[in-house]
Amino acid sequence: xxxxxxxxxxxxxxxxxxxxxxxxxxxxxxxxxxxxxxxxxxxxxxxxxxxxxxxxxxxxxxxxxxxxxxxxxxxxxxxxxxxxxxxxxxxxxxxxxxxxxxxxxxxxxxxxxxxxxxxxxxxxxxxxxxxxxxxxxxxxxxxxxxxxxxxxxxxxxxxxxxxxxxxxxxxx
Length: 172
Hints:
Layout: E1 14-18, H1 23-34, E2 38-43, H2 46-56, E3 60-64, H3 70-83, E4 87-92, H4 107-135, E5 139-142, H5 157-171
Parallel strand pairs: 1-2, 1-4, 2-3, 4-5
Helix pairs in contact: 3-4, 4-5
């Protein structure tokens, strides 16, 4: 690994991370900020996203957004553009699991998992990706799961949603 902290060329570039208030999303946002990026931490829990952004410091903001809601994604993207500028990168990380076997999963749980894990990634890719298309550069990273290839017992809609993420990524 290169010892220069800014070797990725992200200095001053705006990167968005979904599901960024904790876990993998927070660690990703921290790494991007350490590499010089200006980071927008997107999370359904806006208070936690803002607290995490404050801990990162520098050019980091926390934004409340349910990525399954198209209007909320559009509003979040507008806020990021207003506060940080044009978006260069997106890490589609937000996701969750509602445990249960497929024969028992309620339609509401199935739809909720797909809405965040798959549809949310599409909505974010389209909206945050607009700046990348206009600039002719940028990057979108989709976080999937080994469950996309090897379904876990009682993973219900999760494995199906993550398999969908893999194909969504190829189509984009």
